[in-house]
Amino acid sequence: MSASMTKTSQSFVEQASELLGPRGFTQDSDLVAPWLTDWRGRYTGKALGLASPADTREVAQLLTLCAEHGKPIVPQGGNSGMSGGATPDEAGNSIILSLRRMNAIKHIDAQAKQVTCEAGVVLQTLHDEAARHRLRFPLTLGGKGSATIGGLISTNAGGTQVLRHGTMRAQVLGLEAVMADGQVLDTLTPLKKDNRGFDLKQLLIGSEGTLGIVTAATLRLLPEIGGRCVIWAGLESLSQARQLLLHCEDRAAEELEGFEVIPSHCLEAVLDHLPDARNPLAGHHAWHALIELVAEAGQVGALQPLAEDMLSSAMEQGLLEDAVIAANETQAEAFWLIRDSISPAERAIGPAMQHDISVPVATMAQFVEHASPLIEERFPGTRAVAFGHLGDGNVHFHLLAPPQAVRGEWEEDQGKEISAFVHDLVTQWDGSISAEHGIGQMKRDELGRLGDPVSLSVMRSIKDALDPRGLLNPGKLVPLAKGDLNA
Ligand SMILES: Cc1cc2nc3c(=O)[nH]c(=O)nc-3n(C[C@H](O)[C@H](O)[C@H](O)COP(=O)(O)OP(=O)(O)OC[C@H]3O[C@@H](n4cnc5c(N)ncnc54)[C@H](O)[C@@H]3O)c2cc1C
């Protein structure tokens, strides 16, 4: 770092400290270090400091200061993202902008079924608060104890209820964001009809902190559910799971809230990882489906007979091998805990290359059945495992390393080639290399390699227009143009 850079950084640090106070800005390495590595432990960076503003005004002032000093900003919520999007690079010149202090739920309008909250509200907190008003927020995922509303919006997160309610994009009614130059974009008030030009909130959703900092949002809520039926089914194949899904959609279109698939390998990994977990079914099944039906208050009585009828007709048609309906809420939670524990259980086993992919819903089972043996043959000793949101045409397609592989080394040696192989296949099947986890730093080059040239060119133009100096989350999401070595 040159002497003049050091001076600029020093001046920036003094002004940021003055602006945000001791709770709002720190360079203390003990406080900064936990936020320098991503959840999966694949990326570690360096930062000039950690900024934790208390409100939107402070975010705006900080961004103005960063613009003046040319300081890159890496926004961060719960740091539960899967693509290294919230991790700074190794230059040590960036500011991590944590939204975690901005965690107020400002207003719940029970009549309009809307909530306005700050970006740092943790998803589980929002669920709890909505429940106190006999409402619910219809998006959930395994990282709900740490994922924040700002992070969920910025990655357009999905989860296990997309089948019925859509991704985060469908939940956001209004948005507040601070732009690169410090201006505050306020579209918090939801309007059912509004044709005043571009829908800027939709542009910001899924932009992974590269176009603006989300500071608050108005989100839609639904009436609380009166009850649910959670089913665990044993299956012989993923194709059978697809047939079962169609059957469930046919029999319980209004009530079907989630349909997740879990191969036996993942179930066994979770049972090893969680000492108190139990296999819901007695026998062995190659695949499992976790199915949730829900009903509003007043219609709960019809749920159990509906589930029983749906399962017995499925059994008659040879669409499943065995099934059990959770006897109570504790058992229902235990079924879901198995699903939500797949990622940590798998992480405990050893290295894996993870791919969050989608193909058209109708071809997902065929894709997995076609791609798994191909990739295992191409990379001997590996094991392909797919699990997740079959109902959305989205599975997490992981390639587990051979047993003797060393964590870190194996990914370094083989990771790029493996991912390119998977992504090429997905592209051939008209799919997406990022279904719900975003691009981050992990898939930026792959998006550049495989993305539609026109889409990429439009994305770069938008980025240049809104963040001409490239200070917002540099090195993430937006692929470099050919010959551009600066970003
Ligand atoms: C066990 C587990 C299970 C998961 N399951 C799912 C799943 O089923 N579906 C799914 O979609 N995801 C899942 N995730 C991933 C993760 O929870 C989501 O990506 C979530 O949206 C990240 O939220 P976060 O607050 O942790 O964001 P972070 O990880 O902090 O950030 C994610 C990205 O958003 C940007 N960002 C964060 N906050 C802001 C802001 N306020 N303004 C602008 N940019 C911002 C960051 O710079 C980064 O690019 C899972 C994670 C875990 C740990």
Summarize the structure in words.
InterPro entries: FAD-bd_oxidored_4_C, FAD-bd_PCMH, FAD-bd_PCMH-like_sf, FAD-bd_PCMH_sub1, FAD-bd_PCMH_sub2, FAD-linked_Oxase-like_C, FAD-oxidored/transferase_4, Oxid_FAD_bind_N. GO terms for molecular function: catalytic activity; FAD binding. Pfam families: FAD-oxidase_C, FAD_binding_4. By secondary structure, the chain is of the alpha+beta class. It has four domains: 3-98, Uridine Diphospho-n-acetylenolpyruvylglucosamine Reductase, domain 2, CATH 3.30.43.10; 105-223, 2-Layer Sandwich (Uridine Diphospho-n-acetylenolpyruvylglucosamine Reductase, domain 3), CATH 3.30.465; 225-342, Alpha-Beta Plaits; 350-428, 2-Layer Sandwich (Alpha-Beta Plaits). Helices cover 38% and strands 20% of the residues. The protein is built from 17 helices and 19 strands. The chain has helices at 3-24, 29-32, 56-69, 123-132, 149-154, 162-165, 168-171, 200-204, 238-251, 264-273, 303-316, 329-340, 342-349, 364-378, 409-428, 444-450, 453-466; strands spanning 25-26, 49-51, 73-76, 95-98, 105-109, 114-118, 135-136, 172-178, 184-187, 213-220, 222-223, 225-235, 256-263, 287-296, 322-325, 352-353, 356-358, 383-389, 394-400. The strands form five sheets. A five-stranded antiparallel β-sheet has the order 5-6-10-8-9. It has a four-stranded mixed β-sheet with strand order 1-2-4-3. Strand 8 and strand 9 (184-187) form a beta hairpin. Helix 1 packs antiparallel against helix 3, helix 9 packs antiparallel against helix 14 (364-378) and helix 10 packs across helix 13 (342-349). It is globular, with a radius of gyration of 23 Å. The protein starts with a helix and ends in a 21-residue tail after the last helix. The model has no long low-confidence stretch (mean pLDDT 95). The chain binds flavin-adenine dinucleotide (FAD). Residues 39, 74-82, 85-86, 99, 119, 141-143, 146-148, 150-152, 154-155, 157-159, 208-209, 213-214, 343, 436-437, 440, 473, 476 line the site of flavin-adenine dinucleotide (FAD).
